[in-house]
Design goal:
The chain is globular, with a radius of gyration of 22 Å. By secondary structure, the protein is of the alpha+beta class. It starts with a helix and ends with a strand. The chain has 2 domains: 31 residues; 126 residues, Immunoglobulin-like (Sandwich), CATH 2.60.40. Strands 1, 2, 5, 10 and 11 form a 5-stranded mixed sheet that branches. A 4-stranded antiparallel sheet has the order 4-3-6-9, with no helix packed on it. The chain has 2 helices and 11 strands, in the order αβββββββαββββ.
Length: 161
């Protein structure tokens, strides 16, 4: 009977220690600090942004790292190093780039390396149409900001003309 009690106490202590390590981020060997989940919605004039890229750039470069995520059907989740690992706590400038390819621009793969040729990539990118105002894609012009707290964060952005 005593042996079972000791094993039970040991198992509980081990589980508690594992929970503490996970909770305080001590198991993170990346050296950049604990990231916190960040996700949310991006809309433009009340409609979901169907595709794009959202980027969080630290307000003070010495205070963090850039985190980004793909916008799909209006939703995003941030990544700093590993998939969907979130962002470091702090204040960020936020940019959103959302473009739709111009279907009339065609690239002939038999000429100059096809889609991997830098000039072909530039041609397609230049012809792409902005889904949201271009100002949101510029760190200097975007008025979007965010504060990532030491918790799970839901941060929504409503873009307007």
């Amino acid at each position: 009977m005593m042996r079972g009690t000791n094993f039970g106490s040991w198992a509980v202590a081990t589980l508690c220690a594992a929970a503490l390590v996970t909770d305080f981020g001590c198991g993170d060997d990346t050296g950049i600090g604990r990231r916190y989940p960040v996700s949310g919605k991006v809309t433009y004039n009340g409609n979901s942004v169907e595709q794009g890229l959202i980027t969080f750039t630290p307000d003070k470069p010495e205070g963090g790292r850039v985190a980004s995520g793909t916008i799909a059907n209006g939703s995003y989740t941030l990544t700093t190093l590993g998939e969907n690992d979130g962002a470091l706590p702090g204040t960020y400038k936020v940019t959103v780039v959302a473009k739709k390819p111009d279907e009339s621009v065609r690239v002939d793969p038999s000429k100059g390396g096809g889609g991997r040729n830098p000039s072909n990539i530039a041609k397609v990118a230049k012809a792409a149409k902005d889904i949201v105002p271009a100002k949101y894609g510029s760190l200097e012009k975007s008025d979007l900001t965010a504060v990532v707290k030491e918790q799970s964060n839901t941060l929504n952005f409503e873009l307007k003309d």
